[in-house]
Every structure is written in structure tokens, then in C-alpha cells.
Amino acid sequence: MDIALFLDFDGTLTEIAPRPDAVQVAPGLVQTLERLRDRLGGALAIVTGRPVSVIDGFLAPSRLDAAGLHGVERRIGGTLSGASAEDHPELRRQVERLQAMSRPLANVLIEDKGASVAVHWRLASATDAERAEDLVREVADTLGGAYRLQLGKAVGEIVPALATKAHAIRAFMEQPPYAGRRPVFFGDDRTDEIAFASVGEDGGVAVRVGDGDTLASRRLLDPAAVRALLREWGERGAIDPEALPPA
After folding, report:
1. Of 112, 131, 160, which closes a domain?
2. Does residue 155 sit in helix, strand or coil?
3. Number of structural domains, the chain?
4. Which domain, by its residues, includes 137?
5. CATH of the domain at 9
6. Which is higher by pLDDT, 99 or 237?
7. Residue from 2, 8, 128, 213 carrying the catalytic annotation
């Protein structure tokens, strides 16, 4: 099967960490991804809410094709395109507001990504977590239709309205070496469900990592299971996403 493989990062390739900067990349993962990319003729990309530069740091020295910030950034064949922080002046003002208003909330983290912003409350008390979610909702409402709020696992992220992993994957599928292949996307969070739906509509296979209701057709238990599968595929095992357990 000629597939184009798209992989989320946090919660899919790596286990979720209490803080975004505390993620650990499993030994051998970079080599596995490079082998599999070569086996797929280059048709492998990371699709993530992280900036591309941050993914490069985690997966150094490799520089895989990637869509960052839910598609605001996109790198294919070594060429990076997309918006910068300077293209979002109103968002920049609201990031400063978020930082100021969240200071009384213990263990609430504001992750400034330039063209988007995430509010994390995984380590916060239940009361402060609720306040953090209310805060990010309020700021998203203030920004209006040019941006949207997407809620994930103990995180709320404000991103440009047209930035979705679905759009990013479809953009990749218009260019070689992805064009003409069948899209396969692995993700783990509510933020991935839009892409699960679009991949299914486009005749591809969506794989949910972990539990929970999903629009994906297939499921794997956890990131360790994903890494084991990718290692098998990279070492010339049969690449057949249809053989994975149903969701």
C-alpha cells in the first residue's frame, strides 16, 4: 500500500509530560522515523501543535517534514513556510493579558508559540484549572472569528481560525511525495478529531492513540504501541494500517 504517514507528537510518539518542555523522546525513535521515511519514499511528516523549531529540537539531528502550530507552519523538502508572530498583533496583545491574568493561578503555564498560545493546567488544582479554562475561553471570545479555541488534555489553545491539522494534511497531499498516496494519521487528542474526520473523508485511515470516543477507524493503546508499530514498519514489516485494531 502506498501511504502518506502523518504523526502527531505529544501523546502519540511520546508520552504526555507534566510540562511541555519535560517530554522525553524514547531511545531509537529518531532512527525509526528516518528508516520509515526512507521506506515510504519521503512521505512522512510530523503534524503537531508545537512549533516546527521545537520538534526539531526534540528530534535532532533529524529535520523531518512537519506541520507546526496546527498547520500555521509547514515544512516540506526542507522549505519552511507560514506565518510568524508579527503577523498576529492582536494575539500578541492577548498573550500579554493571559500572562498577567494567570499569575495568581499556581501551576498554570502559558506557552507562547508566537502565532498561537496554549494555556496548560495539568499541574494546577481543580479550582485553578477551572479558572484557567475560563480565562482562555474569555480571551478567545475577545479575539473573535479570526481565531478559534481548541481544548485538549488539560490545555486550551488559541490558534488562527483556518489552522487545523486537517488543512495541513490536505496541503501535504497536494505535493510530492505525498500526492497520489493514501493518508494515514495517528493522533491522541480531541484536537486531532478534525483531522481524523478529514482523513476518513479522503479515503485514508485515522488511528486514535489511547481511549475515548473518536472518529478514527483504528486504535492503538499508547505511544509505546505506536513506537513498536513504526519500528516494525521501518524494519520492512508489512505496512498495513487496515490490520490495526478497530476503534
Report:
1. 160
2. strand
3. 2
4. 85-160
5. 3.40.50.1000
6. 99
7. 8
What is d(CA 38, CA 207) in angstroms, rounded to the nearest whole number? 22
CB-count exposure of residue 79 (10 Å: 0-12, 13-18, 19+): exposed
Q: What are phi and psi of 2, to 5 degrees?
A: -85, 105
3-state secondary structure (DSSP) of residue 73? strand
182 and 69 in a single domain? The answer is: yes
Is 8 catalytic? The answer is: yes
Q: Does the bond joining 177 to the residue before it have cis omega, within 30 degrees of 0?
A: yes
Residue-wise burial string across 203-216, b where 16 or more C-beta atoms lie within 10 A, e elsewhere: ebbbbbbbeeebbb
Residue 30 sits in the same domain as residue 126:
no
pLDDT tens for 35-74 read 999 999 999 999 999 999 999 999 999 999 999 998 889 9
The pTM for the full model equals: 0.87
| 190-243 residue pLDDT tens | 889 999 999 999 999 999 999 999 999 999 999 999 999 999 999 987 899 999
Domain boundary among 160, 184, 208: 160
| Residue 86 pLDDT exceeds 90 | no
Give residue 83's pLDDT: 65
Decide if 68 contacts 55 (C-beta within 8 A).
yes
The set of residues, in sequence order, having a beta carbon less than 8 Å from that of 22 and lying 6+ positions away, is none
